[in-house]
Specification:
Oligomer: single chain
Helix content: 40-55%
Number of helices: 19
Structural class: alpha/beta
CATH class of the largest domain: Alpha Beta
CATH superfamily of the largest domain: P-loop containing nucleotide triphosphate hydrolases
Number of strands: 16
Number of domains: 4
Shape: extended
Length: about 450
Amino acid sequence: MENILIVDDEKNYPTIIGEILQEEGYTSLTASSGMEALDILKNELIDLVLTDVKMPGMSGIQLLEKIKEIKPDIPVIIMTAYGSVEKAVEAMHKGAYTFILKPFENQALIAHIAKAISVYRIVQENSILRAAISSRYSFDNIIGKSKPMQELYELIKKVAPSNASVLIEGESGTGKELVAKSIHYNSLRKTKPLIAVNCSAFAETLLESELFGHEKGAFTGAIAMKKGRFEMSDKGTLFLDEIGELPISLQVKLLRVLQEKIIERVGGTMSIPVDFRLIAATNKNLEDEVKNGHFREDLYYRLNVVKALIPPLRDRSEDIPLLIKHFIDKYTNVQPSTGNVSGIKLETVKILCDYQWKGNVRELENIIERCVILCRSDTITPSDLPLQVRQNMSFTLDLNGIPEDVGLAETLAAVEKRMIQRAMKLSGDVQTKAAELLGIGKSGLNQKLKKFNLEK
């Protein structure tokens, strides 16, 4: 139920309006002066202010200015007599939602209030959404205690408040988009749009239209004018992912836009000013691309004002336990059908730390999500991991402990027996799990248990 503050020095007027609002399901509070209204605003949750223009002491216009200083989103409707229309127009310029002339029809007032509150709710929801997004992409979500990640963290923390172009380099799956979003949502442009374009997702002609927009009739199928991503990111940030895939012809045009901050839509002649911050990302080494003639050197230096290099996951294995915990917490909260997983066995963490992560953090996240969904206990064990992870375990054997006079057959048999014993222990003596952990069938495991007298 919305609270409406009615401000008017006429004794009976607020009472009458309050009764009208109550019939429509609103609650109302009244104030006979601007100072009294401000005291109420400080202590009560108010969704709309309905105020008269002419009041002794503080006028309705002055009250409006004070409200916009302390609670700028609250809608204010100005009530005014016919002879004070110019004051109402002044109020509109100073942020009033609308004005209504006295005497007014009750339904007209209700319609204005309903519309104003509806807009206010959207503004509130957008504020909540922006806060949630900013929280999601805060620097704290860039996880890693390794030296390369700490250096990356400090770099983007320094560069975020500026307008400098940033070039993010890293293999696929390392989190380039997360870094780009963290920079944007911690910048002075965070309330404006972040527009992303994957340069590898469009053919050259389509990509030009996507970036620059087009005029009606510019080409077959252009049935209406369309704004491009440059225009859409005005006052905000443009994120060009996979910039290394940008065709040479568009590299020339991008360079001109970065230099002049002016675009022309495809098929158009009008120069349109644009103000955006550019963040680019690539999984290629652009210096090598420049040497090979695949990327313009002048554009490279224009993009490379600040370079953020994200190391591959295999080069920062000390960060893997932190990432594992982060993803377990994340997916136990978002998977309604599970939620029982609370930990992971040390042996499982060791396997994950030894794995060569070709898909980087994205691959690790997918595996942890899978484990959270499929794990049959509250702890992720090695048998819960996908087969390709277990099969690609890297390990070393200490050959110094093997006597020199022991033959190959005896050595292999001893290793095989120890591995079967370990698999049975890790699986809690569940043969199906142990066989899966060893990468063999259950019948094959039965034969080996008999061979080594391990059936009990």
